[in-house]
Structures are given as C-alpha cells and as structure tokens.
Amino acid sequence: MGNFLSRFNIHLNTRIDQREVYRIPPHHKCRNCGQGCDPSKSENTCVNAKYTRTGTKDQPAVYRAVVPNNKINWSTSYEYQPVEFTSEKVRTSTKEYVDKDPRDDPKVEIPWNLDDRLCDRRSYHGPYKVVRRVPQNPCGRTGLTGRGHLGHFGPNHAADPIVTRWKRDQNGQIMVHPRTQRQILEFVCILRKDTNEYAIPGGMVEKKEKVTDTLQREFHEETLNFPDLDERSKHNLLATIKDVFENGGIRIYCGYVDDPRNTDNSWMETTAYNFHDGNNEHLALIEVHGGSDASKAFWHDLGSETPLYASHADFLRKVADIHNAHW
Ligand code: BGC
C-alpha cells in the first residue's frame, strides 16, 4: 500500500485528527452582508441599514445587527444590540445530537471544550470562553446570538475533501494558463443547494464520526451519485476512494471558517484535505455526479477566477501553492 500511494504523491503519515493551530483566515466576506466588503475599513462598508439579512436561499430572512469592522473584537467596547436567533428546526429538534439550550434549563450541563465522544466540543484554536452559560465566538461579534441554523453551541465541525488532478489536453499534456504560465489543476466542485454557490463537497462531522470518515462520506454522497451503477463497479469505486482517503492526503487547513451561519455562540470549524492524483491513476479517472446537498458535481478549473462558498477559496489557493499551479 505504501508504494502504491507514494507513487501518486500522497503523503503518508499524515494524521487526520491531530490538533494543530492554524491561522484564522481573513474575512473576505463581510459578516454583515455576506459580500466581499473591505475588511480593513473600520466603518460599515456594506450597508446603511441597522440590521442586515443573513441565512441561505431556502431559509427565511434573519437580520443581524451590523457590527462595524473595528468593533468585532470582544475587547472593544461597543453598544451592541445583537439579534437572538435559533431556527425553529434547531429549537424544536429532539435529536440527541442537537444541543439543548442551557439558558432555558439550569439542569442542562454541556461539557464545553471537551470531547464527550458523542460530540467533540474542542475548538482547533484552543479553549474558548463560556459567558452566561454559552460559548463565546473566539473571532468576535457577529450581530447574532443563539445558534442560528447550527445544531451545536461552540464549534460545529465540518470536513472538506479537495480532490485534484491536472487539466490535460487531448494528447494528455498538462495545460498551462496563459496569464500565470503555470500548470492548471482541476478540482471536484459542487453547486450547493442551499446557497447556490460553488463549493468543495464537504459537510458536517456527524455524531461519533471521525473526520476521516466524514471526508469519505461527504465526497461519496455529494459527488458519486450513480444509482444505476452495477454492484461490481460500485464496489471498485468505493474501494479506490477508501484506499486513497484513508492512507494520506495533505492537510490544507484546520480551524475556524468565515461561514454565513456563524453566530456569537456557534460557529463553523473545518478540516480540509487535498487528495491529488498527479498521474491520472485513480481519483483523476472518476466521473462525478451531484447528490445529497449538491445539485451538481463536476471537475472545474482551480483558479482565483471562481467565487466560492465561505473560506473555500483560501483552501484552494493553498492547494495551488503546494502544487506550484495556476491560481
Ligand atoms: C460545508 C463545508 C464548509 C463548512 C464551513 C459546511 O456546511 O459543507 O464545506 O467548509 O460548512 O463553512
């Protein structure tokens, strides 16, 4: 197995669950409007309104209190009037894996900053503060309190598999981008059903699940939707994915993400891994077809030209750097 994988430039010995602190990515998308506002400006750069819309395409509008960029930090004093919001679906959920609100019931005790086996509540950035019985977003004010659309207070963990190959012409030659003169990568991209944005096919770590398993499960659910495939081909396809995903990959990022669902008490953290097939030997040969939360899945050129969901462009830029490819 070792030789098989090293032939494909897959780094062995990469441990997936190892906790390392990564730099928190810059906010390209304004916390207020979700657009690409200039985060270096101290004023509200996006809107004049006191409250701005948040949420996703299929969910009712929720308005966040506007937080000027120079007031995001908790240590800056600010007359702050956030909006409290936890979606109906989250509030009324009876699933064991969805948190109860400790502010509603003094008997609810949640093991903050610990892995209670059902759910890993540790942040990749170290212990977070718990204020008035609920965690405080380590990146600052978001204009919303409560859980919004997220099931957990504190970190909500996701995993993002970035599957790449070289873009080749009909003769199998790797194509070079005319602007940067660098070779072009392609990655498996999806169109998210909720926001209609291009994204990496990632998803939430489920109850008791390991990040390694989430990476495989999400890739499978969102990009390998072939209901008519015969049993043998299905088996071979899954065996390839399992081999590659379980034996390596390059860790690209692990930590907080600037996700539109984040609130002052609940936020997204992800682990992004790159699985690259430089020689067209395994992953590069698979066809993809959207399923689950993805309305489409396709191989797409990797480059700064494509706007992507949340912090996904940061991850892809790093992948391009690692392979010395076009960005
Ligand atoms: C997505 C991941 C993403 C994470 C944080 C999840 O819903 O599926 O791809 O990285 O949210 O934004």
From TrEMBL:
- PROSITE patterns cross-referenced by the UniProt entry: NUDIX (PS51462)
Q: Which residues cross the membrane?
A: none
> From what superkingdom does this record's organism come?
Eukaryota
- The residue stretches assigned to a coiled coil in this entry are none
Q: Which Pfam families match?
A: NUDIX, NUDT9_N
Per UniProt, residues of the Nudix hydrolase domain are 166-322
The cross-references to CDD domains, in alphabetical order and at most eight, read: NUDIX_ADPRase_Nudt9
The cross-references to Gene3D superfamilies, in alphabetical order and at most eight, read: Nucleoside Triphosphate Pyrophosphohydrolase
Protein name stated in the entry: Nudix hydrolase domain-containing protein
